[in-house]
Known about the structure:
Layout: E1 3-9, H1 16-29, E2 34-40, H2 41-44, H3 48-51, H4 54-70, E3 78-82, H5 87-97, H6 102-106, H7 109-117, H8 126-141, E4 146-149, H9 154-171, E5 179-182, H10 211-219, H11 240-248, H12 254-265, H13 271-297, H14 300-328
Parallel strand pairs: 1-2, 2-3, 4-5
Helix pairs in contact: 4-13, 5-8, 5-14, 8-9, 10-13, 11-13
GO molecular function, one term: tryptophan-tRNA ligase activity
Protein name: Tryptophan--tRNA ligase
Catalytic activity: tRNA(Trp) + L-tryptophan + ATP = L-tryptophyl-tRNA(Trp) + AMP + diphosphate + H(+)
Amino acid sequence: MKRILTGDNTTGKLHLGHYVGSLENRVKLQDEYETFIVLADMHSFAYPKYVENPEVINASAKEVLLDNLAVGLNPDNVTFFPESAVPEIYELATILSMLVTHNRALRNPTIKEEIKDKNLGDNYSLGFINFPLLQVADILSVQADLVPVGEDQLPHLELTNEVVRRFNQVYGNTLKEIEGKVGRVKRLVGIDGNVKMTKSLNNAIYLSDFAQEVEKKVMSMYTDPTRIHPTDPGHIEGNPVFIYLDAFGTEEDNAQINEYKNRYMIGKVRDIEVKKYLAQVLNNFLDPIRKRRVQFESQPGLVKKILKEGTQKTRAEAQKTLEEVKKAMKLNYFE
Length: 335
């Protein structure tokens, strides 16, 4: 069976953008692929504001695991592990970093975007520049075939394949290239109209938000800035409210959504009416996720067992990969 590896930074709970970007594909593919989910806690330390707040990362790792379980990933079939608990990944990352120039690391567009979005200036660590290599090692440690990701993570996958090709060229055919699978919504806009929903901009609806929180956030959503009065014709394209309706509405909702679109474009419906309907659609979508989350929250022993067993399995696979890599590099001194 082919393998998936993907995961999440442990810097807070997961939101709707994570769902349409990657989580949805994880759930759909979990029976077709042997799936590994990394809780990327060491990645999280790459951001300056978390370096002195390890308790946030620790708590977030548990929240991220619960979110993955809540959307429908089956722990009997899916392997979860914290990145920091698999030291073989660090060793593999160190080895692979020898094949990547410093300039190549800095050219990563996702790194550039992160520096800009988070106003890091030049206040970032060596670990921040290296964390794409750590992600490469995450993927290759279990010899994954497919990586479901958001569009913003594609540069990391390109780097992964560059490293694979370079390693195989120098040391022989040892590692394999991977494919990415982007979600049906490449980047979900934030509730403030920003091009991306993200925790750092406080423009997210979380998978664990209560119904009242969802409604409050929806009612504050950015819509069409050119529409001053309810009777003004409105724009559908680029309007977050309608983007969310298209993303999370069911087939049963399609007729109502289309009616709202038609009325909105001719100025026959108020924003507040459409927003109330969106809140209903989102809460219908989130209700089963919230219920599953509560079920796992009530079983902390089971959650800990899932992580422990997942770590053991991942370490065993990572050790095999590391042995093959070292053998190819003539570093197998004790065989």
